[in-house]
């Protein structure tokens, strides 16, 4: 089969108004009647979507029209996400995460657990080819936190923070004696040690990760399961602040308890994005961007979660000096 070598952001091409070629590997088809094994149906129940393998000769396909399947995330040759209606297609490069637990493994494990209090995506289709992962997941109902947060009053903000903290505690019931993913594979969390960003190849082995955690002063006698990427774009609110869904589980795994609060305290990846109408030099802009993660760090502190923020900040400065 002649596999396409397009950039990740160009993974979808259109065959006709009801068929799309994905990276030359499989074909997404929309029909008006359900086919055996269809993956999902449209919100209005008028269309059904299914996937089959692409075969040589590949059908003629053109660039995806702008009004079809909105691209909601685009990191070029690293990752991209398309909105397929009631599902999402996620394409990611593996890079140095080839030995790490992948997202579909974590999502399937979550689906096996009973009585979870929050919603999360379900795996509809998954394949890995060479250095790329292709994953179709269900849509979690609601809006991302960044959309609803500006309309919240202080009480609603507190209720949302408290609810996400409840979910963090719910996940932390699962324990491990090593820093790994849910299946025992590597746990790829570069924020644990910013020095990892300056290495040609990350070392995410449990031994290397534990050594980093111990140097930061975290208790490594046991490790708790955590999402590790609970920024405002991975939290879905469906109506009230208490009705929460969690998406994007690529970074989930077992980490020291102290890492949960520490990451909220130090990671700008968990902030609101800068807006074009804002002056980035104004203190008010930074306060708005940091509000979510700072409120989470404060509440986790009130709930007794430990942290090593000062030590992490010191390691960051040392890492920056070494990279000059």
Please specify the SSE layout and strand pairing.
Elements: E1 12-16, E2 19-22, E3 26-31, E4 40-41, E5 48-53, E6 62-63, E7 71-74, E8 79-83, E9 87-93, H1 103-112, E10 123-129, E11 132-138, E12 143-144, H2 145-148, H3 154-171, E13 175-176, H4 206-215, E14 223-226, E15 235-237, E16 244-246, E17 253-255, H5 257-266, H6 283-302, H7 309-322
Antiparallel strand pairs: 1-2, 1-6, 2-3, 3-5, 4-5, 7-8, 8-9, 9-11, 10-11, 12-15, 13-14, 14-17, 15-16
Helix pairs in contact: 3-6, 5-6
Provide a concise account of the structure shown.
The protein is of the alpha+beta class. Helix content is 27%, strand content 22%. The chain has helices at residues 103-112, 145-148, 154-171, 206-215, 257-266, 283-302, 309-322, and strands at residues 12-16, 19-22, 26-31, 40-41, 48-53, 62-63, 71-74, 79-83, 87-93, 123-129, 132-138, 143-144, 175-176, 223-226, 235-237, 244-246, 253-255.
Structure in words:
The chain has 324 residues and is α+β, with helices and mostly antiparallel strands. It folds into 2 domains: 8-138, Phosphorylase Kinase, domain 1; 143-322, Aminoglycoside 3'-phosphotransferase, Chain: A, domain 2. It contains 7 helices and 17 strands. It has a 6-stranded antiparallel beta sheet with strand order 4-5-3-2-1-6, with no helix packed on it. A 5-stranded antiparallel beta sheet has the order 7-8-9-11-10, with helices on one face. The chain is globular, with a radius of gyration of 21 Å. The protein starts with 11 loop residues before the first strand and ends with a helix.
């Amino acid at each position: 089969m002649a596999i396409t070598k397009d950039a990740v952001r160009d993974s979808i091409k259109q065959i006709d108004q009801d068929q799309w070629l994905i990276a030359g590997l499989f074909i997404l088809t929309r029909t008006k009647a359900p086919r055996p094994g269809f993956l999902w149906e449209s919100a209005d129940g008028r269309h059904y979507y299914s996937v089959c393998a692409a075969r040589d000769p590949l059908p003629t396909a053109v660039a995806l029209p702008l009004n079809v399947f909105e691209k909601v995330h685009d990191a070029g040759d690293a990752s991209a996400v398309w909105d397929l209606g009631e599902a999402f297609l996620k394409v990611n490069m593996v890079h140095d995460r080839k030995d790490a637990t992948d997202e579909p493994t974590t999502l399937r494990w979550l689906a096996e657990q009973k009585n979870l209090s929050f919603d999360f995506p379900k795996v509809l289709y998954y394949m890995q080819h060479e250095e790329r992962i292709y994953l179709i997941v269900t849509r979690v109902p609601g809006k991302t936190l960044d959309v609803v947060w500006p309309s919240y009053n202080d009480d609603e903000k507190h209720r949302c923070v408290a609810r996400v903290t409840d979910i963090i505690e719910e996940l932390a019931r699962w324990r491990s004696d090593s820093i790994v993913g849910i299946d025992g594979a590597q746990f790829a969390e570069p924020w644990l040690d910013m020095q990892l960003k300056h290495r040609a190849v990350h070392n995410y082995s449990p031994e290397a990760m534990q050594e980093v955690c111990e140097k930061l002063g975290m208790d490594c006698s046991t490790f708790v399961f955590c999402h590790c990427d609970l920024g405002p774009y991975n939290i879905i609110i469906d109506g009230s602040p208490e009705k929460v869904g969690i998406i994007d589980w690529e970074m989930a795994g077992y980490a020291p308890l102290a890492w949960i609060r520490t990451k909220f305290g130090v990671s700008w990846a968990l902030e609101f994005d800068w807006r074009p109408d804002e002056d980035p030099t104004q203190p008010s802009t930074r306060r708005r961007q940091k509000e979510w993660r700072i409120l989470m760090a404060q509440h986790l502190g009130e709930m007794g979660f430990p942290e090593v923020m000062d030590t992490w900040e010191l390691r960051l400065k040392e890492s920056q000096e070494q990279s000059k």
